[in-house]
Every structure is written in C-alpha cells, then in structure tokens.
Request: fold
Amino acid sequence: MEKDGPEAEPPRQRNGFVGMLYGEFTDTLNDKVRYSVSLTESALTVQRISSSPGRTKVVLNLTDCVGCRAYRAADGADVGAYFTAYFYPFKRRWMSAGVARQRVEQCFRVALVQDALTNLREAERWARSIRDASVQQAPRKAGVTAWAVRRPCRVMILVNPHSGRGQALQLFTGHVQGMLSEAGVPYKLVITEHQNHARELVKKADLSQWDALVIMSGDGLLFEVINGLMERDDWQEAIQTPLGILPGGSGNALAASVHHYSQSPPAWNEELLLSCGFMLCKGLVGSLDLVSIHLASTQRLFSFLSLAWGFVADVDIESEKYRHVGAIRFLMGTLVRLATLRVYQGRLAYLPVKEKPNLPTTPQHPSLCSSLPCQLIPTSSPTQNSHHVCNKSNPKTISISSNNAVTTKRPDMPSGSRTREPPDSLLPGLDQPLPESWTVVKEEDFVLVLAIYQSHLAEDLWAVPGALADDGIIHLFYVTAGISRPALLRLFLAMEKGAHLACGCPHLVYEKVRALRLEPISREGVIAVDGETVEYGPVQAQIHPGLARLIHG
Ligand code: ADP
Ligand code: MG
Reply:
C-alpha cells in the first residue's frame, strides 16, 4: 500500500531516475506478515512490520540486483499481484572462510484494492523502478571506459559440451539459465558439434542479430570465436561485438581474470561461474587487448590470453588427458612435467614498452642475438619496466641501442603475406632482421617462455598482478635453464597468490613488452596460443590495444 506518510519522501527526479518509492506489502505465503518496502537510487530496504519490538530490516544493494518481474497469481481468483526482485550479494560461505555471491530473492504480494488489474499495475511499477535503478547502479570503476550492452539485448551463447569435465551444459542449466531469465536477458543457446564449429558459425553469422556473443566453455572456444570474427571481411565492426565468458572448461583463465578485474574476492568453480553470469546480466562492456601472432606458415592468429613455449605449453597440452579432473589438471600436469623437466633452446627478443635511451650504436643483428659479443640479462628488478642497458664494467649486460627504428622506419609486412588488416606495424617479416629498438635475450636455454596479457593463466594461477584487460601490454616472463625443480615448483605455488615475482628467483625474468619474437632451436616442442597447440617454429607477436570488447564487472 503506497502512502504519503512522513517517512515516505515524495518521488523526485535525479539523473533521470525517479528517486524513491515507498509501499507496504504482504508476504507471499502469509497475508498476516507485512513489510514496509522502500526504494532509493541505491538500495531496496525491507522491514518487517510487527507489533513486537526489534523489527528486522534488510538492506539490499541495487548493484547486486540483476532484475525484477511482476506477475499475477496462478490462482485466477486471487486479486493480488506479485513482484520479485533477484539479488546476488556477497555473503559468507557456509562451509569455508570468505564470501561469494549468493542468490537472494525478495517477493511481495500487492493487494491494494479488490481490482486485479490495478494491483498488477502497481506491481509492474515497482518492478520497473527496481530494474531501472539496478541498471543505473551497475558497478563502475573509476577510470574504466565502460559501455552497457543494449537493452533488451539478444545474446548468442555458445556451449562446448565436451569442455572441462564434459558438464558445461549441465552447469549452464543449473547456474546460469535461471539468472538470465531473472534478468530478462533473451538468449539463443548453440551447442557446438565439433572443433571450429563456433569459428565457422561466427564467421558467417548475421551479427546485426546479436548484441553479445558469450562462450560457455574454456578459453579454447573463445579463441575460436575471436579468430572467426577476425577472419570476416567486416572484421573491424565484427570484433566490436561484446564478448562474454562463462567458465565451463578446465582452463578458465579469462573468466578468472575478468572476475579478478571486478575486484571481487577470489572464487572458483561454480562460484566463479555465478560471478561471470552476474556480470553478463549486468552487461557492462570494456575494451579487450588482442595480440596478433604470426607463425612460419604466414598464418596469422589473434590471441586474447597467452603465447607459451616450454614448460607451460607442455603442461597445458599434456594435461589434456586429465581433463576429467577439471581445473586441477594443471597442477597434476605440472607435477608430472617437473619430474621430466627439460631445457628448451631458442632465441627470444622483444620490443620493450619503454623506449630505450639513445646509446652508442650496436649493429643491427641478423637473426636475433647469436653473434652478440656478451650476455644479456635484465639490470632492473623483474617487477619493474626494464630494458637491457650496456654496462662495460658488467659483461653480463648489453644494450641494443635505439634509433627509433620502429617509429621512423615502416617495417616490411611478413613475407609471403598480403597486406592484412589490422596491420602489425611493430613487426618486420618473420624472416627479416629486427629493428634496433628491440632487446635480444642473450640466454638461449630456457625452461619456459610465457607471454600473457590477462591477470590469470588458470583459475588458481595469478600470473600478472596489476594486469588489466586493456592495459596494452604483453607481460613477458621467461625462466632460464639452471632453475632447480623445487625452485620451479615454488614459483608455481607462489603464483596462486600472485607472489612469484617476490620469490627473488634469479632465473625468472619479467618484462613489459609490445611485441616479441621467439625462434625455437630445439627440434621438438609445443607452442600454445590461448591453450591451443599451434604450428611449432618461429613465431612473433604484437599487441593491438583494445581491439575487442569484453563483458566485465
Ligand atoms: P577446456 O578448457 O576444457 O580445454 P576449451 O573451451 O578450451 O575447454 O575447449 C577445448 C577444445 O575443444 C578447443 O580446442 C575447442 O576448439 C574444442 N571444441 C569446441 N567445441 C567442440 C566440440 N563440440 N567437440 C569437440 N571439441 C570442441
Ligand atoms: Mg582449453
């Protein structure tokens, strides 16, 4: 019952939103239990009205609300109408420490008068106001460019039924489907039938039909979708389609990263899924960096997560056989690989984020650094933006001087390729010498090379503290040969808390780069892009800041 008592402020206009509603409604199961309900721009407050003192009051934050709907009673004789609001606030977990999003439903019966239609109109007014206020209260972080997915939006959800433990479809039905219907998000579910099905589908799809493409799988299915979009003639427009991720695989690195960017407490498994589903319902969109990757066959790929060689790539691919155990497959794979730890020979070079100072010229190197006179190691701490500086008193360091070759000289396009869009302006042909502004790593014996552009490498591997989806940086890690098995294991265990860089391991190097080139010398090995095996051989990559769009929190 709406009333104009002293506690009910009159409706007011603020930022286009009608500020406050007040009403008194009954419990859906018990007519004798009444609630006073008030809606402000930021919260729905529910207070039980009873004669006994100590009224219980519940304040529900609208940033946690995904939707609200109004409806008539199933019983046609009932003149009452109902509205139900759906919230997913952080609440203490039952069995373990910490908090996670949990579903809270608030349902009220509206019976102002004996006319069913009037009651329904009032319920609809409340439902609409709660929905509008919730959209305006979508969480926004300072300094983050965000768009909202158009409303009402149409979403295509692609599910890989074989991803993870083969339960992606059941996980979708059990945890996400209901939430999408509460949020009033219409969607079409597409179950992929084979590898590259999603890639072919988005390559040909009429994208004007879809406001977002969402993947319910591991990272591999999103890799397909991104490459399908980039293979289109209208790629420039196509890649602007907001992309969403729902973790259903065994490698859910992007989902873990997106959850992390939302500044939410850590979550795994179903809790991570619920968090990503919640972000999808809220529909906030930001930029996502992509990295273009050139392989020897002149094939070009687009990657959103990682380029790995050596230990990490081997674990990723070899642990496929343990996929039935879920995300823990990486830990099992790590332990198995540690037992057969190997050294991978190759040449690595990169273009640092920070331009190097102009120093006396060193000749341009023909093929990475094989002819360089002294060794290269970073002089700065691995956590800083660093580049290699020549230090005559320290024969271990050298600088390849910068003459701004990257900006003054337009490199050749990769040999054998036609001009491809978007152009990779930082990369010469894979068979061409590198510009002098690049840094060449002297070591040629590696345990791993990992270029990553999101915060997480897996649900429980926080590889890059401080990384953002659109920081425009390739975070390059490499571990040189000589590291002991326990030290390598320590690094991976520390990565769970993002503490590996603080381990002080002299074999671990971290650089922020815009482009890199890797030329394996070892005849056998695996190169993995976003967790998928690609052609083994020379490879180079460059960042394309903010090329795609991503639904985040
Ligand atoms: P996971 O994290 O469990 O590895 P992914 O999403 O990475 O899950 O998918 C694993 C692989 O399955 C990817 O290479 C993807 O392209 C492929 N794939 C996608 N749909 C299907 C399908 N219907 N049948 C078989 N493989 C598929
Ligand atoms: Mg995968």
In short: Residues 1-18, 360-418 have pLDDT under 50 and may be disordered. Residues 292-360+387-538 form a domain with the Tumour Suppressor Smad4 fold (CATH 2.60.200.40). Residues 218-220, 249, 251, 531 surround magnesium ion (ligand 2) (CB under 6 Å). Residues 109 and 206 are 43 Å apart (CA to CA).
